[in-house]
């Protein structure tokens, strides 16, 4: 038997390989409506204030579980999301200081949402976080980071 093989309950050998170092994954989602307008040259109708149903999909990953067998406590994530939802729900993203004068693209929103989430979570067991931000149900952009 090799390091990657294990014995099944019936005594048979099975081969298991780790796809990545982050063996565990946990996903939490939150939906909210926010407004923005694009500030790029010739934005067409997207240059006018309009609403989207955004879905923030957070994927935590890590090689081990914490003291209580969680990768991250879902209640802790939900509490952080409550604060973020309160900040962004029904807001005009262009007016928020974290966007400054930058175009409020869904890509930028995914990164900024992750920045604020990490600030609220503090020390966590996961080693990676991917924020996938859906704009309605048509398109998404993601931002991935290493958690330290």
Key features?
four-stranded antiparallel beta sheet, alpha+beta, two-stranded antiparallel ribbon, 148 residues, disordered N terminus, 6 strands, 21% helix
Description of the structure:
With 148 residues, this protein is of the alpha+beta class. 21% of the residues lie in helices and 32% in strands. It has 2 helices and 6 strands; from the N terminus they run ββββααββ. It has helices at residues 74-88, 106-121; strands spanning 5-7, 13-15, 24-36, 50-62, 128-135, 139-146. The protein has a 4-stranded antiparallel sheet, covered by helices on one side. Strand 1 (5-7) and strand 2 (13-15) form a beta hairpin. Helix 1 crosses helix 2 (106-121). The radius of gyration is 19 Å and the shape is elongated. The two termini are 35 Å apart.
Short characterization:
It contains 2 helices and 6 strands. By secondary structure, the chain is an alpha+beta fold.
Summed up, the helix count is: 2
Rounded mean pLDDT is 89
Residue fraction in strands: 25-35%
User: What Rg do the Cα atoms give?
Assistant: 19 Å
Strands ordered across the widest β-sheet: 3-4-5-6
